[in-house]
Write a structure and sequence with these properties.
It contains eleven helices and seven strands. It is an alpha/beta fold. It is globular, with a radius of gyration of 21 Å.
Length: 290
């Protein structure tokens, strides 16, 4: 009878344990688990926080909102928000929405919003609106990035002075020393046309450099600027992080990178894992928003 009782306990424990699914786990750069309250406490000490994302990850977007809310409380409202998903020439429309002069439909009709804006980014914008925070449209208008990919970086010199205000100051430095850019070159293959490869990388650089400049121009002393961007734009301390570092190496910046895992315990991946300051591990089968 005793053995049967022990067996029942073991089976019950196994069932309960098997149902303990993890939705996410944060790690620091050394691979140690970090709880969200400690994460927020540490983030509050930074001038700039890059919160990387997989654009279609529901848990990723939810965590961006919850961490932002917690950071707002920790910093007593001393926050500035900004995002890749909004382009510089739409700042006016975004400001009109934040001030209450535009409703959601007017914003949608007048600005170039991403298809998943309503589910994934509107909650962040509405938080800024509710708390009267600045929300900066940091990215280059996509037409200029597309132009660079097709015609090269030099073609931007032909833009009008007004158009040039929407991109980083020219000339934009493009180098394969930037983390992530050699990977882009490799992705295009050894037989790809050299000019096309560099134009493609330069288009990425126009985005990164413009977002970096936008952040630097809108920072305020004592406030943490939290920036939401695709993981690739700040992974391995490259992209936007790298461009800001060239301009102001003394700023204290943190990168939150995101990785997917099939491990139910969401342990640090063994392969293709290059950690940054903080690292978010999420299930690879987590619900996608599109």
């Amino acid at each position: 009878m005793k053995n049967i009782f022990i067996a029942i306990l073991l089976i019950s424990y196994s069932i309960i344990n098997a149902q303990n699914f993890k939705a996410y786990q944060f790690y620091n750069q050394k691979g140690k688990e970090i709880k969200t309250d400690k994460l927020v406490k540490e983030l509050a000490e930074y001038d700039i926080v890059f919160f990387g994302e997989n654009h279609n990850s529901s848990i990723n977007h939810w965590l961006q909102l919850k961490i932002t809310e917690a950071l707002y409380e920790k910093k007593n409202g001393q926050l500035i928000l900004g995002a890749e998903m909004f382009e510089r020439d739409n700042q006016s429309q975004l400001n009109q929405y934040l001030s209450g002069k535009f409703d959601a439909k007017t914003l949608k009709d007048s600005a170039r919003l991403w298809n998943n804006f309503a589910t994934d980014y509107k909650p962040l914008v509405d938080f800024a609106k509710d708390k009267k925070l600045n929300f900066i449209a940091t990215n280059i208008p996509r037409r200029y990035a597309s132009q660079t990919a097709k015609e090269g970086l030099e073609s931007l010199n032909n833009l009008t002075e007004k158009e040039k205000t929407y991109i980083a100051q020219l000339p934009i430095k493009v180098t394969l020393d930037t983390p992530g850019y050699p990977e882009m070159k490799k992705m295009m293959g050894d037989h790809a046309d050299g000019t096309k490869v560099m134009n493609f990388i330069s288009a990425q650089a126009t985005k990164d450099a413009t977002m970096a400049e936008s952040i630097l121009k809108n920072m305020q002393a004592g406030k943490t600027f939290i920036h939401y961007n695709g993981n690739y734009h700040s992974k391995e301390f490259g992209g936007i992080y790298w461009y800001i570092k060239q301009k102001n190496p003394n700023l204290k910046m943190a990168v939150i990178s995101v990785f997917e895992s099939e491990d139910p315990e969401l342990k640090v991946p063994e392969k293709e894992y290059i950690p940054t300051d903080f690292n978010l591990i999420i299930p690879s089968d987590m619900t996608k928003t599109y």
